[in-house]
Amino acid sequence: MADRDAERSNPGASLLLVGGGHAHVAVLADWIRRGVPAGARVVLLTPEPILRYSGMVPGWLAGQHAREEGVVDLAALAVRAGVEWVQGRCAALDPEARVVTTDAGPALRFDIASFDTGGEGRGEALLGADPRLVEVRPIEGLVERLAARRASRRERLRVVVAGGGAGGVELAFGLRNLAGAPARPEVTLATGKGGLLPGFAGAVRRRVAAALARQGIAVIGEDARFNGGALIAGDRSLEPVDLVIAATGSAAPAWVRASGVATNAEGFLLVDAHQRSVSHPCILAAGDVAARADRPLAHSGVHAVRAGPVLAANLRSLLAGETPTATYRPRRHSLYLMNTGDGSAIAAYGPLAAEGPLVLALKHRIDKGWIAQYAKLAGASGDHD
Ligand SMILES: Cc1cc2nc3c(=O)[nH]c(=O)nc-3n(C[C@H](O)[C@H](O)[C@H](O)COP(=O)(O)OP(=O)(O)OC[C@H]3O[C@@H](n4cnc5c(N)ncnc54)[C@H](O)[C@@H]3O)c2cc1C
Fold it and tell me: Helix count (H) and strand count (E) of the chain?
């Protein structure tokens, strides 16, 4: 275990933000509003100059938003915050030497590092390799691939979405209502043996199942996988299929486990309630790349967003040479708003469910409000997409 000398950091300390996820944008916002902690030298490392907001992707598919509407301009936020933006992807972390190696450039040294890189796709690991397979992560890759497909396709598209969680459900609805499609795509949702929306209340599952049936989306409660070049679920063929979307949850990036920092069994970076690595106090993490050591916490954008201000406060403390004390305490229930692509949405809050155009209006209001606050802080709407 590394010693806690991060607390002895002083002005001039170097801070590395790796990944521009939902939590790190809150850190950048904090620095724009209150200034970067005195004297700190800060670098933001991300593969792209933007963060694609996943919650608006199903609405984009259904033609409710323009493609460039659902993005946060990371590079502009970095400029406004007084942070150096470096384009690249973390490929390796050495927590003892305090170095991150990027796939594209020189190694980056740090006194304190914070990770918010999200998870990685695991569709190929679960379903097998096939050219028709599209991973949901990275989300920008999914958007690129679907945009190209939408532009090129002349016939009816046949899609299988693998994964019965909220992301898979929303993508199935979005694809069934694909804007600009010459004919309404045929969509099958293979939920896996875990079934539709595991972890959600019966009232929510019933509403979603009814909406899927109403829209003609077939639901199969089996694991989909490729076998001899054909997609099957259980003992049944799902062919012919043009596109298979793997919304099968996220896997931990391989560099996390390889680094030697403490991880949970799945390889996600293990943090305490202050978002701080339980093995290396100079490292913090939030969002899907992290796992809480003190309690189970689902990977979701809601938790990444809410952990952001906690991360910001604790990084500020660390840079001032103080012990971080801010704690992320998840609420008992989170509000999920699932866009059904047809002008309506389904809300889930613990045991409660609601549905209708007003729920969709609320979703648009929340999503667009989240994007707008960062566009305002960046001083522009973002022109990198
Ligand atoms: C279709 C869909 C809809 C969803 N809708 C919702 C919803 O409505 N509500 C909800 O709560 N959750 C939703 N989710 C889940 C949500 O997207 C994730 O839980 C959330 O994005 C996780 O946020 P994050 O900050 O951990 O990482 P991300 O948002 O994934 O951001 C990670 C960032 O790090 C960068 N990055 C990645 N790898 C590296 C690397 N090696 N080095 C440097 N930078 C890197 C990426 O480019 C990106 O900028 C949805 C998911 C999907 C697929």
Answer: 10, 25
Find tokens 């938003």 and name the residue: 65
Q: Is 227 helix (H, G, I), strand (E, B) or coil?
A: strand
- Give me the DSSP letters along 126-141: HH---TTEEESSSHHH
- The predicted-structure confidence for 294-331, as pLDDT tens digits, reads as follows 999 989 899 999 999 999 999 999 998 899 999 999 99
**How many residues are there in the chain?**
385
CB 17 within 8 A of CB 24: yes
22 lines ligand 1 (CB under 6 A): yes
Q: How far apart are CA 318 and CA 320, in angstroms?
A: 5
With a 6 Å cutoff on the Cβ, whether 95 touches ligand 1 is: no
| Pocket lining: 279 vs ligand 1, CB cutoff 6 Å | no
Residue 300 Cβ contacting ligand 1 at under 6 Å: yes
Q: What is the residue type of 148?
A: A
- Cα gap 359→339, rounded to integer Å: 9
Tokens 């889930």, located at residue: 348
Q: Are 27 and 304 in contact (CB under 8 A)?
A: no
- Cis preceding linkage at 138, omega within 30: yes
| Nearest atom of ligand 1 to the alpha carbon of 289 | 26
168 lines ligand 1 (CB under 6 A): no
- Distance, CA of 20 to CA of 113 (rounded, Å): 13
Distance 219 CA to ligand 1 centre (A): 26
Could you identify the residue written with the tokens 């990371």?
Answer: 74
Q: Assess whether the C-beta atom of 223 lies below 6 angstroms from ligand 1.
A: no
The answer to whether the CB of 46 falls within 8 A of the CB of 19 is yes
Residue closest by Cα to atom 22 of ligand 1:
301
Task: Show the tokens assigned to 253.
Answer: 């990036």
Output the average pLDDT for the chain. Answer: 93
**pTM to 2 decimal places:** 0.93
